[in-house]
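During the first year of the project, the team set up a workflow for recording each protein of interest as an amino acid sequence followed immediately by a discrete structure-token representation. This format lets reviewers and collaborators read both layers of information side by side without switching files. As required by the reporting guidelines, we include two representative entries from the current panel. The first entry is reproduced here exactly as it appears in our internal archive.
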Amino acid sequence: MLQIAIDGPSGAGKSTVARALAAQLGCIYLDTGAMYRTVGLMARRAGLDTHDDAALAAMLRDADIQVRLTEEGQRMLLDGEDVEGLIRTPEVSMAASDVAVCPSVRRLLVAKQQEIAASNDVVMDGRDIGTHVLPDAQYKFFLTASPEVRAMRRFDELRDKGQAVAYDDVLEDVKRRDEQDTTRKESPLTRAADATEVSTDDLNADEVVQVIMALMGRF
């Protein structure tokens, strides 16, 4: 099976690039961040402390979290409900970063991710794909961009969705999530030793895909 791991901080363009790369290669694109967002949404709905591993573990024992891979893309199902449109808010984003620290959450979702990758050619993006989820992936890339550029991308995305947000608040969220992701004890955000770093500051998604394809010898 072909496995391509794309890691990097929030807003570096991982999901957009991974989705486009998968389309070009005819692979499945697995958005692992959406899986953590779904758990974050569930925890918020239940009124749980998103740092409480024991409470989250108890919640997940009765949870039905499914990844539906369709021709139109990935859809997240929570107890049969399609929650794809509910997991992209700043609040759920922060909750996702919180629950991603918890070992019980990571064990469950990593097992699901590895199961999918074992039987499909995949492009997978996240925080620890190359270091933990798919350590033997044939290709590994680490996308980077400055906090300011990443915050502006997120700001534009939320504004396009009709959400009233302030750029300074989005920038603060980006910096706070970076701090959480890089300092957590459970699989922190870090570049795999054998991953190629690609800066996306001055490149659009199509250009990043072209760079990656060239690095893979496919372009």
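The second entry, processed by the same pipeline in the following quarter, appears below.
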Amino acid sequence: MTTGTAPDWGIAMTLQDLRIDSVAPTGVTRESLLYRLRMTGLSAGYTLAAVPALVLLILTVVGLPLVFAVGAGLLLVWLAVPATALLTRAHRAVSGAVLGTEIEAGYADDRGRNFLTRPWVWLRDPARWRDVAFLAFSATGGFVLSLAPVALLTAPIAHVSVVLFLDHSLWWLPVFISTPMLIAWWFVSLPLVRARALAERGILDHGRVEELERRVEEVSTSRSEVLDHNAAEIRRIERDLHDGAQAQLVAIGMNASYAEKMIEADPAIAVEVLRELRLTTVSALENLRSVVRGIHPPALAELGLVGGIESLAAPLPLPVTVAASLPGHPPAPVETAVYFGVAECLANVVKHAKAEQVEVTLSHGDGVLRVVVRDDGIGDASAAPGSGLDGLARRMSAFDGIVTISSPTGGPTVVTMEVPCALSSLRTKPYSEKPSSDS
């Protein structure tokens, strides 16, 4: 009697083989067939897992109300919750492998608790309740999702078996019925497995929930800071208008009335008053321009972000190199925020850095606008609360941007601003150039 090795049908698999996106073969090949057979076997496992999920769901639903009434409820909870954790751990591992990601449990720490107090930790833990939601899904919708590939593959086999054993003359019937089912199985088996894995990640991944909650909190905080900043800016503009241009315009109106009265009585005095009116008018216009510059600098509107930064650098008492590689223009709010961010960095360099030169680099890649301001000064710059760099970080956070600062003692200081945004196409004309009415 001779012995031999069993043929390798390629159906055995490990967790690393489950990822659909990376290893799923394409085309109608032997590898594609074997891969779909393996994933259908995974669906069969998902389907069978509905049985313990249903049992644990019943134990949980029955045990929880009894916790407050009789001790038997505690026993049921102690049986159901740890068993549910074991079941969900297996599903996190398998579904995470299918999606190529890690699905986090995120359970509350229940160490050091005794038999009576640990269930109270479980009751207050959102991750445990997500496990209960998974049990309900696995026993209902998940069961249907996973049963479909198995049924589409096994039903034709059953049809053929029935015909072979009962009536050979009806051989055409399983072909007529089974062929569409096999075609459907070929196309839907992988998407259904992936859908099941995505659903389990959505239910069981408490880490994603915490990340979303953290992002919502960050957005709420940055929105509040932006609103506070905007309110402060509005108050500043109102104050500048009230103390500057408005007072000058009131004076212009009063002096104009006085000049009107003096034209006939004393023309020389009237001429002198009108001369003062002209100077006051020029001063009022300059004050208004200053207020407008604080809202949206003319250089930024006319030249764009790169040209605006170059105009910022031109009057500084040290050489500033501006290098840009931007295939387009950022959205106007981002452009304004970055412009004022660079202005803050350059102002800090002039005031505190004792630098001999500054480099400003702008680039865009992977959907992120990146601006780096580097000086060769003495270093020790920081975003202390209330500082200009702290305000810069808060300004950028409103656009989901981040600011990083590297400033060791002795320098150099490197401030990097990164803001996610898309670029529009390059403008063929500056903002200030508009077609004339004669053209």
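For the second entry, the following points were noted during internal review. Residues 222-295 form a domain with the Single alpha-helices involved in coiled-coils or other helix-helix interfaces fold (CATH 1.20.5). The chain has a mean pLDDT of 77. Both points are flagged for discussion at the upcoming steering committee meeting.
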